[in-house]
Amino acid sequence: MTVWHCHIAVSLDGKIARPDGGIDWLVADYTPEGLGFEDFYADVGAILMGRGTYDAIAGQDWPYADKAVTVLTSGPLDELPSGVRARSGALAAVAAELEAEGHGTIWVEGGGQVIRDMIGLGKLDILEMAVIPIILGGGIPMFPPGTPELKLDLEFARPWRKGAIHLKYRRAAV
Question: Which residue among 30, 113, 144, 153 is least crowded, i.e. fewest CB within 10 A of its CB?
Answer without folding.
Answer: 153
